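Quick question: what would this complex look like in 3D?
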Amino acid sequence: MNSPFRVIGKSFPRLDARGKVSGKAIYGTDFAMQGMLHGKLVHSTIASGEILSVEIEEALAMPGVYEVVTAADIPAQRYGSFVKDMEVFASKRVNFVGQPVAAVVARTAEEAEAAAKAVRVEYKEQAAVFTTEDAVKADAPLVHPGWQEYKAVPTVKRQGNITNQARLVLGDVDKALKKSDRVFTHRFVTNIVHPGYTEPRAAIAHWADGKQLHVWSNTQLPFEAQATLAEIFKITPSQVRVNVTVIGGGFGGKLRLGVEHYAAAAALKVGRPVKFVSSCEEEMTAALPRQPLVIDLTTGVTKEGKILAKAASILVDTGATSGSGVGVASSVMLMLAGPYKIPNLRLESRSVYTNKTPTGSFRAPAGPQGNFAVESQMDIIADALGIDPLEFRLRNIVREGDLAPNGQKLESVSLEECLLKAADAIGWKDRRPEPGRGKGIACAWWTTTSGSSGVYVKVGPDGQVFLNTGCAEIGTAALTGAAQVLAEALGVELGSIQIVSGDTASTPFDYGAQGSRTAFAVGNACIDAVGKLHQRMKEIAAKQLSAKPEEIEIENGVAKFGDKSLTLKEIAAIAQTSQGGLIAHGTFIAPPTLHDKERTENMVITAINSPSFHAHAVDLSVDAETGEVKIHDYVVVQDVGRAINPTYIEGQIEGGVVQGIGQALSEEIVYENGIVRNPGLTDYKMPTAMDAPNIRSFIVESPSKVGPYGAKGVGEPPVIHPPATIANAIASAVSARIQTLPITAEKIVRTLTEVSETGK
Amino acid sequence: MTEVQLDLTVNGRRHRLSIPAHYSLLDVLRDELELTGTKTNCLEAECGVCTVVLDGKSVASCTVLAAQCQGRQVATVEGLAEGAALHPLQEAFIEFGAVQCGYCIPGMIMTAKAFLDENPRPTRESVREAIAGTLCRCTGYQKIVDAIMAAAQRLSQQGERA
C-alpha cells in the first residue's frame, strides 16, 4: 500500500536511542552536582497516631551528618490534587506506616541512612482502619480527623473518610431490573500494584540564593512539580525551575512529587545541593501504587442477551491521602458502563481513606479495575444465557454515532472491528481446544487526556530543527512520534530534528507526559507551529524573490515562486542575520468533549476524549494440580487512529500487556495491619522474560478528528484488558471463575478444589 | 572506616583505588569511577539493572563485594562501542525498538553480551532464560529478545568472516 506520508507511519528508531544503549544518558539517579549532599527519610513505624516528639540529637552527632529536617522547617501548608490532604513531613500525626516524618542530610547516602535510623520518634498510637468497607462505617476511626479544614475542589462531596461520592445516572434502573429476564450481581476485588519503573524516584535540589529553587528530577510533569513546590514553599512558580533528567520509566508513578520536595526542604536548610533517591523499600511502601477497588456490579439482561440496566457500588481505596483516587472513582464509572449501549445506569462510587500507602495514577487509572469487573461479568452472563461471549458483546457494544454513558456522541468507533479481528486471530471458534485449555476475550475504550501543549520550533542556519517542548520523554518514544509529526508537516527528514524538553524556565508549558496524550497533543502543537513557520517562510521568501507572500508556495520545506526557490535552510540563515532567527510558537488544546451534565453527579472526570477502542484475546492452559497458567498466544487489536511509529506502538502494546499480566496473575503489595509484607522485588513478583508471552499486535487505524493525522492516544490502553481477558480464559479452561486479583496459582487450585467438593 | 586497596581493570583501563572495605562493585563503578552507565535500583540482585561482565560472566554488581574483584577484569556498557561504532548488540537494540526508558538496557546488553559469548547460536527460549534476571517494565521483553537474536546472528557472521 502506498502511504501518502513521508515520515509518519514509519518505524524510525527513537531519537534518543544512542545515549541509552551506550550508558551515556544521564538519568535522575546519575545526576550529580559539585558540593552535593545526600538525604534519607525517617519513616513512620505506625499506621495511625499522634507524634509526641522527634528526637534528633543523636542523629545530628553521627559521622557526616549536616542537618535533620522536619515539618518545623516547612511552611505549614497542605497540598494535593483534589483535596489538600498531603504534607511534606508529618507534622502532628501520621496516617500510614512508611510516612516521612523527617529527613537526614549527610555527606554520603550511607551516612544519612545510618543517621536516619537514629532519629527517635515517639508516638501515641491510635486506632487505624485498613479496608474501605471498614472506613465507610459510621463509627470508623478517621484517617484525617481534621479533614473538614482541608481545602478541596468544589466538585467533591466529602464525609469523614470519604473524599468523594460521585454518581452516574441514566434512566430508571429499578424498573429496568424488574423488566429484566435475568439479573446478575457479583463482587470484584482488585489488587494494589506498583508501577514498577526500574529507576527509583530521584531528585537534586539547589537554592541559588535562598529564593530561587532549581530542581533536577525524573518527574513526568515538570510544570506540576514547579507549581506544587511553589505552593509548598510559599514562593511563586517562577521562583522554581525544574529540569527533567532522562527518566527510567514512569507509568504515572512519577506524575506527582516523588522526592523533589524532600530535596528542596533539605537544600534550603543546609544551603547546599541535596540529592534524594528512593530505596526499593520506600518504593514498595511509600510510592504511589494503583488503587485497589471493591466493585459490586449488578446487570439486568433479556434472555436474548440485551443489557437493560447496570447498577454498581464502588469503593476506591486511596490509602492515606486522596491523590488521584478521587479521579479514579469518577473515571471507573465510565469504564464500568463499558463500551456498551445501556439505557439505564446507576453507578455510585466513593473514594475512601485508609491507613495505608497513598496511591496514585498508575497507567490507565481505573482502567484495569473497572474492566476486570465489567468484562468478567460479561462472560459470566453470556455463559448463563448460553450465548457465546463474543456474540453477547457484539449485541451490546457501542457503534458509530451512539451515545456513551455520559451522553457524549461517539465518533470513529472501531470496536466491532477490534473484537472480530481479535477473535479471528486467537481462533475463537475453537474456544476450548482441549481439557484445561481455554480462550478469553475482553474489550474496552479509553480516553486521550486533554490539556494544553506549547512548542517552540526553531530552525537553525544549517537546517537543523529544534523541537522545544515542556513535555518530558518518559520512555515511550512519544516525543520521537511528535518529531515525526513535525518532520512530516514541515517537510524535513526526521534526522534533522533535535528534541529539547522538560525545562520549566526555557521550554513552553505542556500539560505533560500523562494520559496517552504526548504524541497526540505535542504533535498537534507542532502542526500549529508549522503553519506559523510556513507563514514566516513565505514572508521572507517573498522579499527575496520579489513576490507577495501569498504567491509563495511551500512544498517539502522549500519556498517556491515560479522557477525560483529558497530552501528552509536558506530562509533560516536569512532570518538569523535579519530578524533574530526562524522560530514559531505552536500551541494546542483539545476541544471540550460535549456530554450530558444531567447524568453526572460530583464527577471530577466526566468524558472520554477522542476515545480509542481495543480488544484483547488470549489462549492459555491451566494446570489443575499446580494452578500454573501457561499463555500460548496473546493477541491485541488496538485502534490508534493513525499509527505514527508502528514499532513503538507495538512496544507500548507489548509492555502494557506484560504489565497487565503482572496485575492479573502475580503482583500485589500485601499488607498486614498496615505493614507491607513484601517490600522488595523478591516477593513483589513482576513478570520476567520467562513469564512474558509472545504478543501479536494488530493495529487498527480509525482516524480521530482531533489528533495529528488522525492519531489517538496509545500508551495506556494495553494495560487495561489483561486481567479480564486472562480471568475469562481461565474460567473457560478449568471452570474456575476468580473474582479477586491477582489470580494466583494458589487461588486457582483452591477454587477448583471447592468446585469439585461442592460438586458444582 | 576500613579502607582496602583495589587493583581493578574496567573496560581495559587499570585502576588502583583505595575504597571502603564494604563497597560493592556497583559502588566502585558509579561512585569512585563515575561510570554511571551501570544503573542502580534494588541493591539486592533482583532487578538486574546493575549487571556487568566480571571475568566473562554476567553478575549483579550490587551484590559483588568490590574487594573480591582484586586483579579482575570488568566490562561495562561504556566499554562496548569502539569509538563511534556501536557494538552489534547496541545496534540491534536500537534497530528493533528494544529501548524504551532504557534504564534496564545497560544491564540487559551486558547480560546478553556474556550470554552470547558462550552461546553464539541461541534459541529464543534460551535468550529469555538468560535475561530473566533483569527486569524490564517497558517493553514486555519481546523486542529485546528480537534484538538479541538478531545480534547473535550478526556476531556469528562477523566471526565467520574474521
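Answer marked as accepted. Residues 450-589 of chain A form a domain with the Aldehyde Oxidoreductase; domain 4 fold (CATH 3.30.365.10).
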